[in-house]
Amino acid sequence: MGGHGGDVVIYADESKDTLLDFHKKGRYSAKRGGNVGAMGVLSSQLHNGLAGPTLRIPVPLGTVVKHKRGKLLADLALPGDEVVVARGGQGGISLLESPEHKKKKMMAMTPNVMRDESDKVLLLGQPGEEVSLQLILRVVADVGLVGLPNAGKSTLLGAITLAKPDIADYPFTTLMPNLGRLDGDPSLGPGQFSSEATLADLPGLIEGAHLGKGLGRNFLRHLRRTRLLVHVVDAAAEDPVNDYRTVKEELRMYNPDYLERPYIVVLNKIDIPEAIERLPKLTEEIRKIGSDNTDLQTGTVSETDGPCEEKKVKEIEEYPRPHAVVGVSVLKGIRINEMLKEIRAALRNCRDDIGSS
Ligand SMILES: Nc1nc2c(ncn2[C@@H]2O[C@H](COP(=O)(O)OP(=O)(O)OP(=O)(O)O)[C@@H](O)[C@H]2O)c(=O)[nH]1
Ligand SMILES: [Mg+2]
Protein backbone atom coordinates (compact mmCIF):
# COMPACT_ATOMS: atom_id res chain seq x y z
CA MET A 1 0.00 0.00 0.00
CA GLY A 2 1.36 3.41 -0.89
CA GLY A 3 1.38 6.34 1.49
CA HIS A 4 -1.77 8.28 2.12
CA GLY A 5 -1.95 11.67 0.41
CA GLY A 6 -1.62 14.77 2.60
CA ASP A 7 -4.76 16.08 4.30
CA VAL A 8 -5.62 19.75 4.48
CA VAL A 9 -6.20 21.09 7.99
CA ILE A 10 -7.33 24.59 8.92
CA TYR A 11 -6.41 25.66 12.44
CA ALA A 12 -6.87 28.68 14.69
CA ASP A 13 -3.58 30.44 15.28
CA GLU A 14 -3.60 33.05 18.02
CA SER A 15 -0.62 34.89 16.63
CA LYS A 16 -2.48 35.44 13.39
CA ASP A 17 -4.46 38.52 14.21
CA THR A 18 -3.65 40.40 11.06
CA LEU A 19 -6.82 40.01 9.15
CA LEU A 20 -5.69 41.73 6.01
CA ASP A 21 -3.36 39.08 4.66
CA PHE A 22 -6.15 36.66 5.23
CA HIS A 23 -8.44 38.28 2.74
CA LYS A 24 -6.73 37.20 -0.40
CA LYS A 25 -8.11 34.14 -2.06
CA GLY A 26 -6.18 30.97 -1.50
CA ARG A 27 -6.24 27.74 -3.38
CA TYR A 28 -5.03 24.66 -1.63
CA SER A 29 -5.75 21.07 -2.42
CA ALA A 30 -5.28 17.78 -0.71
CA LYS A 31 -2.45 15.75 -2.15
CA ARG A 32 -2.66 12.69 -4.30
CA GLY A 33 -1.88 9.49 -2.45
CA GLY A 34 1.66 8.21 -2.73
CA ASN A 35 2.24 5.70 -5.50
CA VAL A 36 3.68 2.33 -4.81
CA GLY A 37 7.18 1.95 -6.00
CA ALA A 38 8.16 2.80 -9.53
CA MET A 39 6.97 1.03 -12.61
CA GLY A 40 9.10 -1.75 -13.80
CA VAL A 41 11.29 -1.85 -10.75
CA LEU A 42 10.76 -4.99 -8.81
CA SER A 43 11.96 -3.88 -5.49
CA SER A 44 9.91 -4.47 -2.39
CA GLN A 45 11.35 -1.47 -0.62
CA LEU A 46 9.67 0.73 -3.18
CA HIS A 47 6.30 -0.66 -2.36
CA ASN A 48 5.67 2.02 0.19
CA GLY A 49 5.61 5.56 -1.09
CA LEU A 50 5.81 8.06 1.76
CA ALA A 51 2.59 9.41 3.20
CA GLY A 52 2.05 12.97 2.08
CA PRO A 53 2.56 15.61 4.78
CA THR A 54 -0.53 17.33 6.14
CA LEU A 55 -1.00 20.82 4.78
CA ARG A 56 -1.75 23.05 7.77
CA ILE A 57 -3.26 26.46 7.11
CA PRO A 58 -3.28 28.96 9.99
CA VAL A 59 -6.22 31.34 10.27
CA PRO A 60 -7.10 33.94 12.93
CA LEU A 61 -8.97 32.91 16.04
CA GLY A 62 -12.69 33.22 15.43
CA THR A 63 -12.67 31.97 11.86
CA VAL A 64 -15.85 30.21 10.85
CA VAL A 65 -15.32 27.53 8.20
CA LYS A 66 -18.27 26.87 5.92
CA HIS A 67 -18.84 24.87 2.80
CA LYS A 68 -19.44 26.99 -0.28
CA ARG A 69 -23.08 25.96 -0.11
CA GLY A 70 -23.32 27.26 3.42
CA LYS A 71 -23.05 24.19 5.62
CA LEU A 72 -21.09 24.96 8.76
CA LEU A 73 -17.94 22.87 9.13
CA ALA A 74 -16.32 24.41 12.18
CA ASP A 75 -16.11 27.51 14.30
CA LEU A 76 -12.47 27.91 15.27
CA ALA A 77 -13.09 30.07 18.31
CA LEU A 78 -10.50 28.61 20.69
CA PRO A 79 -6.74 28.42 20.33
CA GLY A 80 -5.88 24.93 19.13
CA ASP A 81 -9.20 24.38 17.37
CA GLU A 82 -8.73 22.73 14.02
CA VAL A 83 -10.67 20.95 11.33
CA VAL A 84 -9.73 18.57 8.53
CA VAL A 85 -11.31 20.08 5.44
CA ALA A 86 -10.01 17.74 2.76
CA ARG A 87 -8.65 14.24 2.92
CA GLY A 88 -5.59 13.28 0.98
CA GLY A 89 -6.04 10.53 -1.60
CA GLN A 90 -5.72 6.89 -0.79
CA GLY A 91 -2.32 5.41 -1.50
CA GLY A 92 -1.76 3.19 -4.52
CA ILE A 93 -1.79 -0.59 -4.37
CA SER A 94 0.87 -2.80 -5.85
CA LEU A 95 -0.33 -5.78 -7.81
CA LEU A 96 3.13 -6.77 -8.85
CA GLU A 97 3.04 -10.02 -7.02
CA SER A 98 -0.66 -10.69 -7.17
CA PRO A 99 -2.02 -13.69 -9.00
CA GLU A 100 -3.35 -13.01 -12.48
CA HIS A 101 -7.05 -13.30 -11.60
CA LYS A 102 -6.72 -10.75 -8.81
CA LYS A 103 -4.94 -8.33 -11.13
CA LYS A 104 -7.74 -8.66 -13.64
CA LYS A 105 -10.38 -8.11 -11.01
CA MET A 106 -8.71 -5.00 -9.59
CA MET A 107 -8.07 -3.59 -13.03
CA ALA A 108 -11.70 -4.02 -13.94
CA MET A 109 -12.64 -1.98 -10.90
CA THR A 110 -10.65 1.11 -11.73
CA PRO A 111 -9.15 2.85 -14.74
CA ASN A 112 -6.50 4.17 -12.42
CA VAL A 113 -3.91 1.61 -13.47
CA MET A 114 -0.43 1.71 -14.81
CA ARG A 115 1.19 -1.27 -16.50
CA ASP A 116 4.43 -1.81 -18.29
CA GLU A 117 5.33 -3.99 -21.24
CA SER A 118 5.99 -6.99 -19.04
CA ASP A 119 2.50 -6.58 -17.64
CA LYS A 120 3.43 -5.57 -14.13
CA VAL A 121 0.60 -3.69 -12.65
CA LEU A 122 0.17 -0.83 -10.20
CA LEU A 123 -3.00 0.85 -9.10
CA LEU A 124 -2.20 4.52 -8.80
CA GLY A 125 -2.80 6.59 -5.69
CA GLN A 126 -6.10 8.39 -5.73
CA PRO A 127 -6.33 12.16 -6.08
CA GLY A 128 -7.07 13.98 -2.84
CA GLU A 129 -10.40 15.59 -2.05
CA GLU A 130 -11.11 19.02 -3.41
CA VAL A 131 -13.41 21.38 -1.56
CA SER A 132 -14.54 24.96 -1.93
CA LEU A 133 -14.84 26.71 1.38
CA GLN A 134 -15.91 30.03 2.70
CA LEU A 135 -13.86 31.36 5.59
CA ILE A 136 -15.60 34.03 7.60
CA LEU A 137 -13.92 35.86 10.40
CA ARG A 138 -16.00 36.68 13.44
CA VAL A 139 -13.56 38.12 15.92
CA VAL A 140 -13.49 36.75 19.42
CA ALA A 141 -13.98 39.70 21.73
CA ASP A 142 -15.86 40.41 24.93
CA VAL A 143 -16.43 44.07 24.23
CA GLY A 144 -17.35 45.75 20.94
CA LEU A 145 -16.70 49.47 20.38
CA VAL A 146 -19.32 51.03 18.15
CA GLY A 147 -19.99 54.56 16.98
CA LEU A 148 -19.99 56.91 14.03
CA PRO A 149 -16.75 57.46 12.12
CA ASN A 150 -14.40 59.84 13.95
CA ALA A 151 -16.04 59.35 17.35
CA GLY A 152 -12.74 58.21 18.83
CA LYS A 153 -13.17 54.44 19.03
CA SER A 154 -9.64 53.65 17.96
CA THR A 155 -8.22 56.35 20.23
CA LEU A 156 -10.16 54.79 23.09
CA LEU A 157 -8.78 51.33 22.34
CA GLY A 158 -5.26 52.73 22.21
CA ALA A 159 -5.82 54.56 25.51
CA ILE A 160 -6.82 51.53 27.58
CA THR A 161 -5.01 48.64 25.90
CA LEU A 162 -1.62 48.07 24.31
CA ALA A 163 -3.18 48.01 20.83
CA LYS A 164 -1.84 50.58 18.38
CA PRO A 165 -4.68 51.18 15.95
CA ASP A 166 -4.53 53.77 13.20
CA ILE A 167 -6.07 57.04 14.28
CA ALA A 168 -6.84 60.00 12.07
CA ASP A 169 -9.18 62.94 11.79
CA TYR A 170 -11.02 61.56 8.83
CA PRO A 171 -13.87 59.05 8.73
CA PHE A 172 -13.33 55.36 8.07
CA THR A 173 -9.78 55.29 9.33
CA THR A 174 -10.47 51.85 10.70
CA LEU A 175 -11.16 49.39 7.90
CA MET A 176 -10.82 46.14 9.81
CA PRO A 177 -11.46 45.41 13.47
CA ASN A 178 -8.58 46.05 15.86
CA LEU A 179 -8.28 43.97 18.98
CA GLY A 180 -6.85 44.96 22.35
CA ARG A 181 -6.63 43.28 25.70
CA LEU A 182 -7.90 44.93 28.85
CA ASP A 183 -6.33 43.66 32.05
CA GLY A 184 -8.34 42.71 35.06
CA ASP A 185 -8.63 45.14 37.94
CA PRO A 186 -5.70 44.53 40.31
CA SER A 187 -7.50 46.25 43.16
CA LEU A 188 -9.87 43.30 43.30
CA GLY A 189 -7.08 41.13 44.67
CA PRO A 190 -5.70 37.79 43.56
CA GLY A 191 -8.07 35.49 41.73
CA GLN A 192 -10.47 38.35 41.13
CA PHE A 193 -9.26 39.46 37.75
CA SER A 194 -12.65 38.67 36.41
CA SER A 195 -12.87 41.83 34.36
CA GLU A 196 -10.09 40.81 32.01
CA ALA A 197 -11.46 41.24 28.51
CA THR A 198 -10.71 41.55 24.82
CA LEU A 199 -11.95 44.70 23.11
CA ALA A 200 -12.73 44.99 19.41
CA ASP A 201 -12.58 48.42 17.80
CA LEU A 202 -14.81 48.35 14.74
CA PRO A 203 -14.99 50.55 11.67
CA GLY A 204 -17.37 53.49 11.99
CA LEU A 205 -21.06 52.99 11.29
CA ILE A 206 -23.17 55.44 9.36
CA GLU A 207 -26.83 55.73 8.58
CA GLY A 208 -27.69 53.08 6.04
CA ALA A 209 -24.76 50.86 7.03
CA HIS A 210 -27.07 47.87 7.31
CA LEU A 211 -27.91 48.44 3.63
CA GLY A 212 -24.26 48.59 2.68
CA LYS A 213 -23.53 52.31 3.03
CA GLY A 214 -20.09 53.38 4.19
CA LEU A 215 -18.16 50.27 4.99
CA GLY A 216 -21.47 48.54 5.10
CA ARG A 217 -22.64 45.73 7.22
CA ASN A 218 -19.75 43.46 6.62
CA PHE A 219 -18.10 43.99 9.95
CA LEU A 220 -21.27 44.09 12.05
CA ARG A 221 -21.01 40.35 12.38
CA HIS A 222 -17.95 40.89 14.56
CA LEU A 223 -20.29 41.99 17.33
CA ARG A 224 -21.83 38.57 17.37
CA ARG A 225 -19.60 37.12 20.08
CA THR A 226 -19.36 40.23 22.23
CA ARG A 227 -21.06 40.42 25.62
CA LEU A 228 -20.86 44.14 26.11
CA LEU A 229 -21.06 47.05 23.71
CA VAL A 230 -19.42 50.39 24.28
CA HIS A 231 -21.07 53.19 22.32
CA VAL A 232 -18.55 55.92 21.62
CA VAL A 233 -20.21 59.26 20.90
CA ASP A 234 -18.47 62.48 19.89
CA ALA A 235 -19.94 64.88 22.44
CA ALA A 236 -18.59 67.83 20.48
CA ALA A 237 -20.46 66.88 17.32
CA GLU A 238 -23.44 68.83 16.03
CA ASP A 239 -26.10 66.49 17.38
CA PRO A 240 -24.63 63.75 19.58
CA VAL A 241 -28.01 62.35 20.64
CA ASN A 242 -29.03 61.92 17.05
CA ASP A 243 -25.66 60.30 16.28
CA TYR A 244 -26.22 57.86 19.09
CA ARG A 245 -29.70 57.02 17.83
CA THR A 246 -28.36 56.50 14.32
CA VAL A 247 -25.91 53.89 15.53
CA LYS A 248 -28.56 52.13 17.60
CA GLU A 249 -30.87 52.12 14.63
CA GLU A 250 -28.23 50.54 12.42
CA LEU A 251 -27.52 47.87 14.99
CA ARG A 252 -31.21 47.16 15.30
CA MET A 253 -31.67 46.85 11.56
CA TYR A 254 -28.77 44.44 11.33
CA ASN A 255 -29.65 42.30 14.30
CA PRO A 256 -32.03 43.45 17.03
CA ASP A 257 -30.37 41.09 19.50
CA TYR A 258 -27.46 43.48 19.56
CA LEU A 259 -29.68 46.03 21.29
CA GLU A 260 -30.57 43.58 24.02
CA ARG A 261 -26.97 43.30 25.09
CA PRO A 262 -25.65 45.28 28.04
CA TYR A 263 -23.88 48.45 27.00
CA ILE A 264 -22.41 51.65 28.25
CA VAL A 265 -22.22 55.00 26.51
CA VAL A 266 -18.99 56.98 26.41
CA LEU A 267 -19.44 60.66 25.64
CA ASN A 268 -16.04 61.47 24.24
CA LYS A 269 -14.02 64.63 23.57
CA ILE A 270 -15.00 66.50 26.74
CA ASP A 271 -11.69 68.34 26.47
CA ILE A 272 -13.51 70.47 23.90
CA PRO A 273 -15.39 73.33 25.67
CA GLU A 274 -18.69 72.82 23.79
CA ALA A 275 -18.69 69.20 24.85
CA ILE A 276 -18.05 69.73 28.54
CA GLU A 277 -20.72 72.46 28.65
CA ARG A 278 -23.45 70.25 27.38
CA LEU A 279 -22.27 67.11 29.15
CA PRO A 280 -24.85 67.08 31.99
CA LYS A 281 -27.75 67.61 29.60
CA LEU A 282 -26.44 65.08 27.11
CA THR A 283 -25.86 62.48 29.80
CA GLU A 284 -29.40 62.93 31.02
CA GLU A 285 -30.93 62.68 27.57
CA ILE A 286 -29.03 59.55 26.66
CA ARG A 287 -29.76 57.88 29.99
CA LYS A 288 -33.45 58.36 29.32
CA ILE A 289 -33.47 56.58 25.96
CA GLY A 290 -34.59 53.03 26.54
CA SER A 291 -36.71 51.04 28.89
CA ASP A 292 -36.24 49.86 32.48
CA ASN A 293 -38.32 46.86 31.75
CA THR A 294 -35.52 44.43 31.02
CA ASP A 295 -37.58 41.39 30.17
CA LEU A 296 -35.18 38.76 29.02
CA GLN A 297 -37.43 37.02 26.56
CA THR A 298 -35.57 38.34 23.53
CA GLY A 299 -32.19 38.25 25.16
CA THR A 300 -31.21 35.04 23.43
CA VAL A 301 -28.42 35.06 20.93
CA SER A 302 -29.80 34.46 17.49
CA GLU A 303 -28.27 31.73 15.41
CA THR A 304 -28.08 33.81 12.29
CA ASP A 305 -25.60 36.49 11.44
CA GLY A 306 -27.74 38.56 9.22
CA PRO A 307 -30.71 40.77 9.75
CA CYS A 308 -33.73 39.23 11.43
CA GLU A 309 -36.39 41.16 9.61
CA GLU A 310 -39.11 38.61 10.34
CA LYS A 311 -38.77 39.30 14.04
CA LYS A 312 -41.11 41.65 15.76
CA VAL A 313 -39.11 44.82 15.74
CA LYS A 314 -39.24 47.06 18.75
CA GLU A 315 -38.64 50.76 18.92
CA ILE A 316 -35.29 51.98 20.22
CA GLU A 317 -37.12 53.19 23.33
CA GLU A 318 -38.20 49.65 24.17
CA TYR A 319 -34.70 48.25 24.45
CA PRO A 320 -32.72 48.38 27.68
CA ARG A 321 -31.07 51.58 28.84
CA PRO A 322 -27.31 51.89 29.15
CA HIS A 323 -25.64 50.50 32.26
CA ALA A 324 -23.81 53.79 32.51
CA VAL A 325 -23.13 57.00 30.64
CA VAL A 326 -19.67 58.54 31.16
CA GLY A 327 -18.08 61.68 29.83
CA VAL A 328 -14.41 61.31 28.94
CA SER A 329 -11.62 62.56 26.78
CA VAL A 330 -9.77 59.51 25.58
CA LEU A 331 -7.31 61.76 23.81
CA LYS A 332 -6.39 63.87 26.84
CA GLY A 333 -6.87 61.10 29.36
CA ILE A 334 -9.72 62.78 31.25
CA ARG A 335 -11.89 60.45 33.38
CA ILE A 336 -10.44 57.32 31.84
CA ASN A 337 -10.53 55.57 35.20
CA GLU A 338 -14.23 56.25 35.68
CA MET A 339 -14.86 54.80 32.25
CA LEU A 340 -12.77 51.71 33.02
CA LYS A 341 -14.65 51.24 36.26
CA GLU A 342 -17.95 51.22 34.37
CA ILE A 343 -16.70 48.87 31.67
CA ARG A 344 -15.42 46.43 34.28
CA ALA A 345 -18.57 46.67 36.37
CA ALA A 346 -20.73 46.03 33.32
CA LEU A 347 -18.55 43.07 32.34
CA ARG A 348 -18.80 41.57 35.80
CA ASN A 349 -22.53 42.02 35.60
CA CYS A 350 -22.91 40.10 32.37
CA ARG A 351 -20.66 37.40 33.73
CA ASP A 352 -22.92 37.11 36.76
CA ASP A 353 -25.92 36.89 34.44
CA ILE A 354 -24.36 33.97 32.64
CA GLY A 355 -23.47 32.31 35.94
CA SER A 356 -27.00 32.55 37.29
CA SER A 357 -28.91 31.38 34.25
N1 LIG B 1 -10.39 66.60 21.03
C1 LIG B 1 -10.45 65.29 21.02
N2 LIG B 1 -10.24 64.61 19.87
C2 LIG B 1 -10.30 63.27 19.93
C3 LIG B 1 -10.60 62.55 21.13
N3 LIG B 1 -10.62 61.24 20.83
C4 LIG B 1 -10.34 61.13 19.51
N4 LIG B 1 -10.13 62.34 18.97
C5 LIG B 1 -9.78 62.65 17.58
O1 LIG B 1 -10.85 62.26 16.73
C6 LIG B 1 -10.34 61.81 15.49
C7 LIG B 1 -10.89 60.42 15.19
O2 LIG B 1 -10.38 59.50 16.12
P1 LIG B 1 -10.37 57.93 15.84
O3 LIG B 1 -9.97 57.27 17.10
O4 LIG B 1 -9.60 57.62 14.60
O5 LIG B 1 -11.92 57.72 15.54
P2 LIG B 1 -12.69 56.38 15.13
O6 LIG B 1 -13.99 56.40 15.84
O7 LIG B 1 -11.82 55.21 15.36
O8 LIG B 1 -12.92 56.63 13.58
P3 LIG B 1 -13.18 55.55 12.40
O9 LIG B 1 -12.10 54.53 12.50
O10 LIG B 1 -13.12 56.36 11.18
O11 LIG B 1 -14.53 55.00 12.65
C8 LIG B 1 -8.82 61.83 15.62
O12 LIG B 1 -8.36 63.02 15.04
C9 LIG B 1 -8.60 61.85 17.11
O13 LIG B 1 -7.39 62.46 17.48
C10 LIG B 1 -10.82 63.32 22.33
O14 LIG B 1 -11.05 62.78 23.42
N5 LIG B 1 -10.74 64.65 22.19
MG1 LIG C 1 -11.10 53.87 14.07
Automatic annotation (TrEMBL):
Keywords: GTP-binding, Nucleotide-binding. Transmembrane segments: none annotated. Pfam families: GTP1_OBG (PF01018), MMR_HSR1 (PF01926). Residues 141-348 form the OBG-type G domain. Coiled coil: none annotated. Residues 1-140 form the Obg domain. CDD domains: Obg. GO terms for molecular function: GTP binding. Signal peptide: none annotated. One of its GO terms (biological process) is ribosome biogenesis. Belongs to the TRAFAC class OBG-HflX-like GTPase superfamily. OBG GTPase family. PANTHER family: DEVELOPMENTALLY REGULATED GTP-BINDING PROTEIN-RELATED (PTHR11702), GTP-BINDING PROTEIN OBGC2-RELATED (PTHR11702:SF39). This is GTP-binding protein OBGC2. It comes from Penstemon smallii. The lineage of its organism: Eukaryota, Viridiplantae, Streptophyta, Embryophyta, Tracheophyta.
